[in-house]
Amino acid sequence: MQAIGLIETRGLTPALEALDAMCKAANVRLASFKRVGSGLVTVIVEGDVASVAAAVEAGAAAYQKTCGQLVSSNVIPRPHPDLARMLI
């Protein structure tokens, strides 16, 4: 795995919309989908660094267009194996 991208949203439907935009925008795959609590949902994708960065940007834009302020997003290039194992 070369990179992990994360987007945290408020609600399941906006998370699915962001995930759809992420997968359509770049060559990434869903690595994990977590309900954090208090309505927060985290979508985690993986792929090469450029694809993950493009996917996170597209997912954040799709979320902000429909729902407003994004809770959080991040791209982690070359994650440590322990971190990747914890997230995925």
TrEMBL record:
Keywords: Bacterial microcompartment
Pfam families hit by this protein: BMC (PF00936)
Localization per Swiss-Prot or TrEMBL: Bacterial microcompartment
PROSITE patterns, per the entry: BMC_1, BMC_2
Family matches, as CDD domains: BMC_CcmK_like (cd07045)
Domain BMC: 3-88
Similarity comment text for this entry: Belongs to the bacterial microcompartments protein family.
Protein name: Propanediol utilization protein PduA
Organism this protein belongs to: Paenibacillus auburnensis
Gene: pduA_1
